[in-house]
Amino acid sequence: MKKIYLLLAILSLASGVTLAQVQCTDKAECWPEDSAMRTMFLLSEKQEITERALAAKHGELLKLVATSSMDGVTADIRLLAALKTQQLAWLKYRAEECELIGSLTGAGGSWPSVWAAECEVKHTQSRLLQIRSAISCIEKIAGDKRVFEQNECLQQLALVPLLLAACGVQQPANNMSSAVPAGTPALDSAALISDLRTLSSPAFAGRDVGSDGNRLAQEYIKRRFAEIDLAPFGASYLTPFAFTRPARNGEAAKTYPSAANLIGHIRGSVNPERYMVVSAHYDHLGVRDGKVYLGADDNASGVAAMLAVAAHFKKHPPHNTIVFAAFDAEEGGSDGASYFINSAPIPIKQVAVNLNFDMVSRNDNNEIFAAGTSYTPALKQVVAMAAATSSVKVRLGHDSKPAGAAPDYDWTTQSDHVKFHERGIPFLYFGVEDHADYHKPGDSFEKINPVFYAEVTRLLISAAEILDRNLGTLE
After folding, report:
1. Taking Cα atoms as reference points, which of 290, 284, 99 lies closest to residue 196?
2. Are 296 and 304 contacting, i.e. CB atoms less than 8 angstroms apart?
3. Displacement of CA 216 from its chain's centroid (Å)
4. pLDDT, position 308
5. How far apart are CA 392 and CA 394, in angstroms?
6. CB of 336 within 8 A of CB of 280?
7. What is the CATH number of the domain that holds 53?
8. What pTM, to 2 d.p., does this model score?
């Protein structure tokens, strides 16, 4: 508690309020509504409670694993040591990650400390859920079988398969492989936030197709593809195209002569002739009536997340070839995706799935939707496996139109994945529901929740990993 009060004292000075100027300091009610002080105090109380619960549950897990036995065979002591070591590594990871999150928000005053504290609470809650889930999973196994079967339950934690293999664990044989990184994937949060901030900055002027801002975005994405070391198809990542949008809604037909997709790939190490396309559109609405539509969530967030997935696979080579596509001209008709489908540098019939990101950085309910599973039920297991270790609530839906639903409830045609769907290619689309700044000038970097966004991006990396290991099951 001394540490908490010291931090509160520092925050009070930063906000211009001294402890001597208030009559109480030990309750959230002592501080003004919506102040950093009040928020920090509430987060500190929540974190203390969650930390105690986490320590108790981790101890319960260790005891449960240690007492598993069958015919004299007991749990390998190396597995217990690995569990303890991994928990210490997770604590270190949480501290470093949340310190970084606090430093990257761009907020002034004491709010960076609040963001860091919120990050710690969310990570701790997520870890507690993982451990509870693992315990529940183990308890459902008959006592005389636990020593051999409990390891699948431990996959819900951030124990990589290599660690389990070191303990002599055999991976279970299912229709969908569990030999994927369990738990929280590594993420370069600094690069993620930097990419989002840059692409949604006023200098890019809303990235309207054919505009100078759009061309700046092209150059930026080209540079990031090169830094990640994606391979182009041919001499350049840039794929220029022209298109004409027909007259509609009282507007005359218009030709766009200088649109461009950016395409890179990582060749698969096992099945290089089978493809997954990871996509996100980089265009937005530009400048309208003198106002810049910055498009931070829509869809600088999707592009930055796609770059994070690409960087992950560059460090962890995929089994199948993964194509990374930054599409132009999504707003108004998915023309960039249409051009890719009709003139792709790969055999379209060998594309097993499209993983599409569009608006993934902002939601007040800590939830994101995964659409596409109603068309390809096998994708439900992919989503479930990816969601198992995330603190973000992942919901299925928006890929059909229930009776009485609003006209725009079905997202099947609402982003670039529709062009893959029209060719019979399965798609998995991640996105949040519309918020107050959807297609408005207020969709800015400052409105992004960096903690939520980082956790969603880890979820997307996990989903991509699981898909890569299981593309054959979708055929």
Report:
1. 284
2. no
3. 25
4. 98
5. 6
6. no
7. 1.20.1270.180
8. 0.69
Q: Please report which residue ranges of 67-203 form alpha helices under DSSP H.
A: 77-104, 111-139, 146-154, 161-166, 189-199
Say whether both 143 and 207 belong to one domain. no
pLDDT tens for each residue of 246-272? 888 888 999 999 999 999 999 999 999
Two tokens, residue 307 = 């770059």
Q: Are strands 271-281 and 73-74 parallel, antiparallel or unpaired?
A: unpaired
Give residue 303's domain range. 189-474
CA nearest neighbour of 472 among 309, 185, 270: 270
Cis ω for the linkage preceding 449 (within 30 of 0): no
Helix (H) or strand (E) holding 13: helix 2-14
Q: Which two tokens mark 389?
A: 């270790």
**Predicted local confidence at residue 207, as pLDDT:** 98
- C-alpha pair distances (Å), 180 with each of 161, 176, 245, 330, 471: 7, 10, 43, 32, 13
Give the three-state DSSP class for 295: coil
- The rounded distance, in Å, linking the Cα atoms of 107 and 104 is 8
- Kindly give the pairing relationship between strand 351-357 and strand 427-431: parallel
> In which residue are the tokens 């981790």 written?
58
Give the CA distances from residue 473 to residues 140, 177, 367, 377, 469, in Å, rounded to whole numbers and listed in that order.
Answer: 28, 10, 27, 11, 9
Q: Indicate if 426 and 368 belong to the same structural domain.
A: yes
